[in-house]
Amino acid sequence: xxxxxxxxxxxxxxxxxxxxxxxxxxxxxxxxxxxxxxxxxxxxxxxxxxxxxxxxxxxxxxxxxxxxxxxxxxxxxxxxxxxxxxxxxxxxxxxxxxxxxxxxxxxxxxxxxxxxxxxxxxxxxxxxxxxxxxxxxxxxxxxxxxxxxxxxxxxxxxxxxxxxxxxxxxxxxxxxxxxxxxxxxxxxxxxxxxxxxxxxxxxxxxxxxxxxxxxxxxxxxxxxxxxxxxxxxxxxxxxxxxxxxxxxxxxxxxxxxxxxxxxxxxxxxxxxxxxxxxxxxxxxxxxxxxxxxxxxxxxxxxxxxxxxxxxxxxxxxxxxxxxxxxxxxxxxxxx
Length: 335
Prior knowledge:
Helix content: 40-55%
Strand order of the largest sheet: 3-2-1-4-6-5
Radius of gyration: 23 Å
Number of strands: 11
Number of helices: 12
Largest sheet: 6 strands, mixed
Strand content: 15-25%
Distance between the termini: 34 Å
């Protein structure tokens, strides 16, 4: 169990942000977050509000949202109820619900001028995330797991509880004698995370424990940071020109860079030029391999990927926006 000094250290990540919006569902994790924030020594110097997203997927969700409102107000926090309205998707429900949740939280944060959104993701969530990404063949960035701080469009997303286990957070609720809800969807085999959660004890018997997964995440993050440092330096050397609609890199510089660094440089520019497209790692890997081969042969070369044209042109590798397609087109949203 984490002692008070460790709890205070975990919340230090919140100090630079004067106005905070806590994402509270009513489960033990987020209730524990509220309880920790109530006794946070820096609370008086911050504006702290609570938001609950009612996805409308279960009959009891409306009552639960109202109960969380009461709990938040009893703890001295302003509460905002956010409703996911409209017809619900029949496929990828959890992913779409997550996207809707963040969209609603971000809109609420903007409305109340909050500097950051705070979630109660914890160590067990981190292990599950890494395992999920491992099963999907993720790259190093994915295997690093969830960051304690990341940008959510124009607002910061903070996760101060990543060092706490779920058992730690349940104990905080029990010690405060504060009730919480258990979401039945967490046990529903229809969802990938629920299925992975059930096999984790078996994996732990073979050594792939929650801690081992998080250790993998920390090591992946360390390597990822080193590669990002290398990529930033390589970009400074290779960049010839950057405009709103295109970027030029030196073909000679890219030819001598490792594929992983070229991949990162291209991914950054494709995301900048066509943020509305989902860039799949496997397709980018194939494209970089083809680009390297063309550079070594000094051959003409051009490909289209994720709304961008990538081509070799007069000693430069040019990445530019592809012209709009004629007729109706479907753009995928990243989940």
